[in-house]
Design brief:
7 helices, 3-stranded antiparallel sheet, alpha/beta, globular, Rossmann fold
């Protein structure tokens, strides 16, 4: 199994800046050979800081299509929705593809969303929960075993059913960028770097995976473990 490339930043602000630099560079590289740049984004706090930094850079928003990695089943505009925060942080020039979680027939909606996905994402951003989940691939949920569809639904988790990309989509991506910050991520980050398959995050098999973490999350990692080049 290919080792993960790990970069440790001194704090959350530095992590967001570094992540924005990686996204901008990946977009430029992708657009040299194909259009548009296809980018799937997870929820949580860390991506919004990344987008704030990205907006300070020369970034090809109009040539970027942004998809959701996962979303809670909740009304439009609900503060729990990842889309609510995504739309607050992404310029209107970007092409955003929301997950249709307000549809009356969720499995049909998941199928429709899967048909809208690119064959292979240029970049997928993933986070890591304290319980080791990523996307909405959560421990002990049947969704972990779904390999025949690209978009699936979870059982209720932290109060919500969720729509999520499945492992086959993540594994087809050209690159995965993990953002892992905070002291509550110390244990799952160590497990991710060790490729401990007991957590859902470690089951992502994408060949190119880069982890950008802050010092609070990485402070118990052995020096140099999992560290790769630029």
């Amino acid at each position: 199994m290919t080792p993960l490339l790990l970069e440790v930043c001194p704090d959350a602000d530095a992590m967001a800046r570094r992540a924005a630099e990686i996204v901008a560079r990946t977009a430029r590289d992708a657009l040299e050979t194909r259009e548009p740049f296809t980018f799937a984004v997870s929820g949580g706090r860390t991506p919004w800081a990344m987008f704030a930094q990205l907006r300070t850079l020369d970034f090809p928003w109009s040539l970027t299509h942004i998809y959701q990695v996962d979303e809670r089943v909740a009304p439009d505009g609900d503060s729990s929705r990842n889309l609510t925060h995504l739309l607050e942080n992404v310029p209107h020039e970007a092409h955003v593809h929301p997950m249709p979680v307000t549809d009356d027939h969720l499995w049909d909606a998941a199928t429709r969303y899967s048909l809208d996905l690119p064959a292979r994402f240029d970049l997928i951003h993933l986070g890591l929960g304290p319980d080791g989940h990523t996307a909405s691939l959560v421990p002990n949920d049947p969704v972990l075993s779904v390999t025949d569809v690209d978009v699936a639904l979870t059982q209720p988790y932290q109060g919500h059913i969720r729509m999520t990309l499945t492992y086959p989509v993540l594994d087809r991506a050209r690159q995965v960028l993990w953002l892992v910050g905070g002291a509550d991520k110390v244990d799952p980050l160590a497990r991710l770097i060790a490729r401990d398959s007991s957590i859902p995050g470690s089951r992502v098999q994408t060949e190119q995976q880069r982890v950008v973490a802050d010092r609070a999350a990485a402070n118990q990692l052995p020096s140099g473990e999992g560290v790769g080049g630029q």
